Amino acid sequence: MNPLWLQEMWWGTLGTVRPFPGFDADKDVRDIQIAVEKKDVATLVRILTNRNNAQRQQIAESFHKASQKDLSPVLKKALSGPLQELMLALLMTPVQFDAHRLRQAMEGMGTDEEGLLEVLCTRTGPHLKEVMLAYKQMFGRYLEKDLESETSKDFTKLVLGLVMKEERNTRGLIDYHLIGEDVKALAAAIGSKKINSAPWIQILTLRDPDHLNRVFQRLEMLKGETMEKMVQSNFSGDFRLGLRILVCCIQNTPLYLAQRLQGSLKKSSIVRGIMVGRSEDDLLCVRREFKKLNNTSLYSTIQKEFKGDLQEALLALCRSEDL
């Protein structure tokens, strides 16, 4: 299970990247300038993967003061390919990175529905409000309008519900009446020939995870099947995919992310998204779930699947072996 108090505790305690002791932004800037001149990629990787995001923002600011240049374009010239994309991702703030990922999922031919869902289902309402602002600042576009144009029908309602979600915080309080009402509403919505998706969208995007996990447990006992089976047998298409991922994230976000890594190790963009996006959040938990799923550690898997400086950068974010 994935209670709200544990989600809050994860930040800064169950991430793999911590503040670098003895941090000196000016020294890092000097070392980066020399590394860029010498094309010393290993030094760039060592510095940027061993500082937390707040420290990397200070490095970027100090670099601009020292050189009158932005660090990102300088790194873009010095690096290439997936390593370049990883280093540039590290220079974004968390909300900028999520905004960037959402835009990537909607650019070009077709929409990456699971790319959208990974961000929208694993982030809190307040965080997503900041992502919406960052999206407008970065791209001059409204996230809600892009989501509307790139999706359809019930799936549109679900993703908009997620991006606008205002979770009812019931931490420390167990509202048995509301739990019972939600169970009845969800059961009734799939209890007739005409499935009603509206209660599923409303309840799953308005309640906090602790409350929803209690609802899910009672609904599973009532229906005699798992939430996954209920979603699979009653819904279809992108909406079914969205509900399946949302339910999984409500129950156990690190497990969903571990499963996504397991099936996407050949796709550097997905690996980058999780390794960067969760490195100061819950990557230790993702590592634990990955080890349970695969009987081998994420660290060892990265060693096997990647090479060179990209491997070193990903290993630095992963941090250590799980025995």
UniProtKB/TrEMBL annotation:
Any one GO molecular function term: calcium-dependent phospholipid binding
The name this protein goes by in its record: Annexin
Keyword terms, alphabetized: Annexin, Calcium, Calcium/phospholipid-binding, Repeat
Xref: Gene3D superfamilies: Annexin
Superkingdom of origin organism: Eukaryota
Family the entry assigns: Belongs to the annexin family.
Protein's organism: Coilia grayii (Gray's grenadier anchovy)
Domain remark from Swiss-Prot or TrEMBL: A pair of annexin repeats may form one binding site for calcium and phospholipid.
SUPFAM superfamilies: Annexin
